[in-house]
């Protein structure tokens, strides 16, 4: 609920002549909120994702990881 209120405040702060779809900060906010929402879904949160060895060059550690935690982590990184 709080994320919705924050998003509404953010939308109100954008000038009326600004196209929301081209406003980078709005798109990032929508993506972050969506990632957080999906990361809390019971079915998705319990899923596992295997990251192969060759993904270390992108900063990911090989092994099985919780999808919910990974999505929440991505949301945190986008918010920074």
Structural class: mainly alpha
Tally of DSSP β-strands? 2
Percent helix range = 55-70%
Shape: elongated
> Measured on Cα atoms, how large is the radius of gyration?
16 Å
Low-confidence stretches are: none
Q: How far is the N terminus from the C terminus?
A: 22 Å
Largest sheet: 2 strands, antiparallel
Order of helices and strands: HHHEEH
Strand order of the largest sheet: 1-2
Share in β-strands: 5-15%
Number of distinct helices: 4
Please state the average pLDDT score: 82
Describe this structure in words.
It is a single chain. The chain has 80 residues and is mostly helical. The protein has a domain at 29-80. Helix content is 56%, strand content 10%. The protein contains 4 helices and 2 strands; from the N terminus they run H-H-H-E-E-H. Strands 1-2 form a two-stranded antiparallel ribbon. Helix 1 packs antiparallel against helix 2 and helix 2 packs antiparallel against helix 4. It is elongated and about 45 Å long.
